Amino acid sequence: MVETHRTPQATWVEVANQLTLELGTLLNLDALLKKLAQRLTELAGAERALVLTADSENETLNLGAITGTQILDARGRPKHIFFPTHNQGDDPIIARWLRGEVYPVANGDLARASTLASLAQAAELTVFFSVPLLIEHDLIGVFCLDNPSSHAQIQPDKQTLLSALAPTIAVILRNAVQHSQTTRELDDKVNELHRLRQIDRELSDTIKLRHVFDVTLDWAMRITNAEAASLALYEQDTDELRFALELGYPPPNDQIALLRSTYGGGIAHRVARSGRPEVIPDVSTDTDYVAISNAMHSHMSVPVMREDRVIAVITVESRRFNAFTDAHLDFVEKLSARAGVAIDNARLFSETAREREKLSHILGSIADIVMVTGQDDRLILINQSALAALYLYPERSYIGQLFPEVFDDTPLVSAFHHAKVMGQTMVEEVILPNKRTYHANFSYNEKIGWLIVMHDITPLKETDQLKNELVATVSHDLKQPLSVMNGYIELLQMNQKINPLGDNYIRMIQRSIQNMQHLIDDLLDMAKLETGVQIEVEAVSIKQVIEECLENVRQVAEAKEMRMDVELPDDLPRIAGDFKRLLQIFNNLVGNAVKYTQPEGHIIAKAERTTHSAVQITVQDNGIGISPEDQAHIFDRFYRVRRAETDTIEGTGLGLAIVKRLVEMHKGQIGIESRLGEGSKFIVTLPVFPDVDPRQTQSLPPAPPDGDSDY
Ligand code: ADP
From ligand 1's centre to the CA of 549, what distance in Å? Predict the structure, then answer.
């Protein structure tokens, strides 16, 4: 037989190879330990094998597997048997194992090896053969073999074989331990990721600050196995720490609050100030510690940061000493990073909600209509006044609906379209279904959309109407006595002989009556124009108008020795207008030019076609001129320039207001260019009467684009 020639070494190598093949592929540590124990039992021809594995981190030896009867705890689960290996130099058995000595243990040895007592007792070990498994002085594990029924020691040749197998078994065991450790670490990582994802979900689900605190502390306690926890908010600027939530402490909340206010924030406050987490294994060693419950022995506080600022502190406490590991700290730090974001979000949300509530309160209580639409024309805000004025249902929400759909039967829609076409801020007068008149201001904001604010101007309109009626009545009633006075003065002049002084008095009375009549005429006119009188449009020759106006002032102008020039091209198209009203416009402008120009001055009236559809007429003088500040007001009613030069000039301040209104009624425009002391130029643009002679049109140069005017 081949076997008889084989050396023991050859057999060991073969067994070792077999073991490696058989066990080296087993990566599950428990399965490997069981199999190993079984194979060792067979190889040793023993009744039983025990495999102990070394935990290098905790410096313990743990019973990993045992063949035969299992050792169970009180609840019937496999009992966790372990004993320390550090500082066990005096324990004769452990000392040997650490040195790597194979050792047949006898009963007497065990009596001296107190460290092993728990194992010896649980497994009823008496006489056994032990082989330590070392790799480069590191104890990986130990296996023991015994015969508990016969108490016989293992055969010497088997002892030799088992000793020879030790290095191979050590490698197999180390590989399996490392693999299981890696798997465990990987599992832990996956679990942690899973938990963090869940935390993220729970925290992002809430916008309530209190809920954020609850979720945070709940997770902190669950993961660290802490019995109590608290969360305090920190104001870095004022160094104020306010405990917002306390969980798991036996004293009632008011008592905790009292303790906090009496003793302050303790370690949590220290952590808030430093921004660094602290783990206190035994709170009795820390003088800053504030005991909310005397039952707590270890403590961990972790700062919650937002952009380099501490905004809160998470604290967990345990009844056990040294309860918090690096892994716990690492986890709570990750939790605190998430809590920071959630606290910030919740705070921002509640701040925004508060602001929104405030705003909606303000908007709800103002009388003006306020509406806002987004870029898509959908309503994003509508206040109570709007609902009431537009007869909308107060309990219904119109948010998100299209503006044109909500207001489809009101003039608001066309005003809105108009504003959109103009693409900028626009003010329009609209009458709403409640029969009231509003000043509607449409303004556009690139980031929001359209903001519509409407102010009820009905009272102003009514007052205006009343005023106009009053002016009309009063003016009429004033005119009549003036005519009577005029008549009697004429009679007086005809029938009485009056001396030169009396003549002078009569002329002054006549001038005053005339001024009064002008004022009344202007007032009547203004009132009429404001109540919306219509003009009768026909084709008017502007040449005829200007010439007639100049004729009207010729006498006065000649008296002042003024020069009057007219530049009117022959092919000037006719204007779409009301002859009498156009006469009124230019009588005023030419009259003013004569009035506000010194003797020997110069007046030029010009007209030219500026675009296909517009004629521009200018009345220019080299008179006293108007300052830029006054230019802004001269078209206002009753505005008169107050200067030394104008003191002696009579007027009502209504002329230009009437002119402006009349020009607008003709769909024209009026502007002014003037310099103080140099003269003024009034520029009026009026529309061409559309029914023009086609031959005239053809002879015109190409028309510039509409609106192309000099000012
Ligand atoms: P008034 O009856 O006072 O002339 P207007 O409304 O016609 O009232 O004019 C308003 C003011 O504008 C006048 O008081 C005057 O100071 C100024 N003004 C009008 N036209 C001229 C002008 N051509 N040159 C200088 N000032 C003028």
Answer: 17
